[in-house]
Amino acid sequence: MRSSFFGFNVAVNGLYTAQKNLDVINNNINNVNTPGYSRQQTVQRATRPLNIFDGTGMVGTGSEVIGVERIRDEYLDTMYWSENITFGEWDTKRTLLSELEATFNEPSNSGFTTIMDEFFKSLQELAKDPSSEAVRALVKERGVTLAKYFNDLATRFEELQVDINDRIEATVERINSIGAQIQQLNKQIYTMELDGSIANELRDQRTLLIDELSRYINIDAHEVVVGKLPSGRDDVRMVITISGKAFIDHFSFSKLALIQRENKLNDEDVPNLFDIGWEDGNSLKIKGGALKGYLDVRDGNAGENGSPVYNGIPSYIKKLNRFVQTFAMAFNEGFIDLDNSGSIEDLEKGTGHVDGYGIGSADTGIRFFTMLGDGNKSISSDDFIDGASSVSDIAARYSHITAKNFAVSSDILEDFNKIATSDTPGEVGNIRNLSELLQLRNNDQMFTEGAPEDFMKSVITTLGVGSQQAVRISANQEVIVKQIENRRLSESGVSLDEEMANMVRHQKAYTAAAQMINTMSEIYDILINRVGL
């Protein structure tokens, strides 16, 4: 049985349907520039039809909007998070390695090649006039400049290691903050969706947070169906895991913790660095994201002592330490490992600074390079060698020299006349000892890589190759991430052209429904007020 106003009710349903569609379009247009917003779309269907009283069929009752859904492709979200993890790691490495390259400052007028060249040029000038006080002073200053170059490099590397440690701390705090926000959103979403509604805006906020989280650390995010809600919908729970352990499990949230190291991972590390674990005490292996980039560069020592298998700051500091130890021992003592075996027994004794004589003294045994001691002051040859006479004892003394404490000995700083040029006392014009020292610059047996400059070039080249690799992988990943993001935007983003077309379409439907109401009104007016008159 149909009401006398059946047609009027059908038209009103059409009016309401068009209005709800226009409201959703209005919301989409207003959020066209909102980060993370997903285009929304009404779920429209025909209302239940009624049987015609004479049994000749059924008649439609109009349309209705039964929900508003967000247009989202979960597969693209998963792809984005997976690729963003890799991008976060290599983009971080790209940035940090570029900072390391800037520290070496090669090629430039203040880089190693220039400083080493000026040091040996000053020795060549001294060979022309061994008695010149001005040239001797120049040799001393060029030696100080060479030592300070390594001091500055080591100091900057340590400062960068501290800076990365601070960035790790800030990143972990941000990860925990994101986790707490997702936990709260999970509660709000679950509460709002109990009646069958979809919390579109809250889900957008959660997805945006997961996007950011995937940049920092390796995550696996997915929704798990655990049953049915009273509304009949699936009861889904958001689960985010890190290296297999739940970071977010619906309403529960496990924080990451910063654990201060009691012992250094590498001898080259600064003290008080942070490791990352779970707040409950369990260990955590970081496999991707910006955190892995930070850890690899901060701790990477080519896999030694349990460090990452990566050439990070400790690896480069170790190479600098090796250079100053080997160069100082060769220049001072004349000891060179001809087989590059690393064995003390294979050290060959040549002519070193200790074998020569300066001006006005019959004393020998003066070391040109030693190390900084208490009060950051250079120590003397006697204090440095401390009576050592055997090759192994002497080599042990040089193992204490590092790039950070490398220095010209106090003997030379206090009296540049002790710079040894002669191989015989009292012969001012004798430069045989100095000639032997000059040959060290091109001695290709000093290092496995060759001469001193070859060794440093290999260090800088290794860093350059690592930096180029990071740039290349980062650029490739950025392209992949942007491609996935564009696909997500084409699926979920708001297109003003599309919304305007839909607006016109639903506006016409609204106008037609309104016109139908006017038409039905005239029909009822004629039926009620004019029939029978």
Description:
- The protein is built from 13 helices and 14 strands.
- With 533 residues, the chain is of the alpha+beta class.
- Strands 5-6-7-8 form a four-stranded antiparallel sheet. It has a two-stranded antiparallel ribbon with strand order 1-4.
- A hairpin with a 6-residue loop joins β2 and β3.
- The longest helix is centred in the N-terminal third of the chain and has 60 residues.
- The protein is rod-shaped, with a radius of gyration of 38 Å.
- It starts with 5 loop residues before the first helix and ends with a helix.
- The mean pLDDT is 92.
Summarize the model shown.
The protein has 533 residues and is of the alpha+beta class. It has 13 helices and 14 strands. The chain has helices at residues 6-30, 74-104, 112-128, 133-192, 200-216, 289-299, 313-333, 381-385, 391-398, 410-414, 432-438, 452-492, 496-530; strands at residues 40-46, 50-51, 58-59, 63-70, 220-228, 234-242, 245-249, 252-253, 256-260, 274-278, 335-337, 347-349, 369-371, 406-408.
Number of helices, counting only DSSP H or I runs of 4 residues or more? 13
Tell the overall outline: rod-shaped
The percent of residues in helical segments reads 40-55%
Order of helices and strands: HEEEEHHHHEEEEEEHHEEEHHEHHHH
**Structural class computed from helices and strand pairing:** alpha+beta
Give short descriptive properties of this protein.
alpha+beta; two-stranded antiparallel ribbon; four-stranded antiparallel sheet; 533 residues; 13 helices; 53% helix
Describe the SSE topology.
Layout: H1 6-30, E1 40-46, E2 50-51, E3 58-59, E4 63-70, H2 74-104, H3 112-128, H4 133-192, H5 200-216, E5 220-228, E6 234-242, E7 245-249, E8 252-253, E9 256-260, E10 274-278, H6 289-299, H7 313-333, E11 335-337, E12 347-349, E13 369-371, H8 381-385, H9 391-398, E14 406-408, H10 410-414, H11 432-438, H12 452-492, H13 496-530
Helix pairs in contact: 1-13, 2-4, 2-5, 2-6, 2-12, 3-4, 4-5, 4-6, 4-7, 7-12
